[in-house]
Amino acid sequence: MSSDVLVVFIVFGSIAYVIKMLSDNRLRRLIVQQGEVNENVKYLFSNKFSLAVPPSLKWGMVLIAIGLAIVVAKIVDAFARVDDSLPFALMFIFGGVALIIYYRIGSRMLKESESAQ
Fold it and tell me: What pLDDT is recorded for position 97?
């Protein structure tokens, strides 16, 4: 019984937190758009990285890495009987490596776009 109540509180608390964060972010953006703050604060709210680097590159790299991890886990399992947690471990490792590579590519693309301006 107590675990059911805990789950309800967690779900509703999470929903309330997300709504609060979205409304705060909207208010901040409106303040920045109205020009009520100085240039330093505008720089903090600008998301230059997502403008220079497409987010589809990140998700494509992560999904390819996860698929590759599943294939590698199947190949390893065919040759040697291993633990069932190997596919999950490989997914996290390959996905993390893909995100690190994405960050490196994105940083390079951001530097190139800033130097072109």
Answer: 95
